[in-house]
Amino acid sequence: MTAAGDDSTPAARLRLLQAEFLQPGREVHGERVTTSATPSAPIRLSVYEHIRATVEEATEHTRAAAPEAAPRPRGLDELYGWMRSETEHLDAARQQARDALIYRQGLEHALLMDEVSVIRQHVCPGCSTWSLFWRPERKAAVCVNRYCADDDGMSSYWTLAQIARDHIARQIPAARRAT
Ligand SMILES: [Zn+2]
Q1: Could you say which DSSP state residue 156 is in?
Q2: pTM of the complete model
Q3: What spacing in Å lies between the alpha carbon of 145 and ligand 1's midpoint?
Q4: Are residues 140 and 159 in contact, defined by beta-carbon separation less than 8 angstroms?
Q5: From ligand 1's centre to the CA of 168, what distance in Å?
Q6: Buried b vs exposed e over 25-62: b needs ≥16 C-beta within 10 Å?
């Protein structure tokens, strides 16, 4: 089901985080050799905490949406597949919310690995132009399109959740879009 060779899916990024930051030196695909230094303890701790929070949020979201959901699989690899399969019977709006949550987590995984360029792959939710730049100190992306600024000339900022929701909504044909 999932594109095995695609490193940009939320699941692939989560796997990469775990493999590269929590188990340094481990061979990922049989022949891979890690040449970089072992990540420092604070980095490993923050990645560990990020993964823990990711799993917790995904689990709570699924349980709230589908109280009868099967127990969460132990493997991190199966987390998003489990979320989807346990909620695929829900209405379109709730499936969209699930997809946006998964997508937003994927953006968080990427940013934790310093892949700031992922933000540039999205149009601004406000003006639909390619004008977004990540501002880590704001934990948000700024739109530099001056026509997107408010009446006082203040730039618009967009959270990862807003960018993810907008991205998912744009994938859905207008006829199926939840209102
Ligand atoms: Zn904009």
Answers
A1: E
A2: 0.85
A3: 6
A4: yes
A5: 17
A6: eeeeeeeeeeeeeeeeeeeeeebeebbeebeeebbebb
CA distance 142 to 145: 9
Sheet containing 132-135: order of strands: 132-135, 140-143, 156-158
Cβ atoms of 168 and 96 closer than 8 Å: yes
Name the one residue in this structure whose structure tokens are 């006829």. 175
pLDDT at 176 over 70: no
Question: Any alpha helices (H) in the chain, and if so which ranges?
Answer: 10-17, 41-65, 79-87, 92-112, 160-171
Strands 132-135 and 156-158: unpaired
Residue owning tokens 């132009």:
129
How remote is the CA of residue 135 from the centroid of ligand 1, in Å?
Answer: 14
Q: Using the mean position of ligand 1's atoms as its centre, give its distance from the Cα of residue 130 in Å.
A: 8
Dump pLDDT digits (tens) for 122-138: 999 999 999 999 999 99
> Ligand 1 centroid vs 82 CA: distance in angstroms?
35
Torsion, Cα 36 38 112 99, to 10 degrees, reads: 100
Closest CA to 79 of 92, 98, 97: 98
Q: Ligand 1: distance of its center to the CA of 16 in Å? A: 31
Q: Are 66 and 87 a contacting pair, CB within 8 Å? A: yes
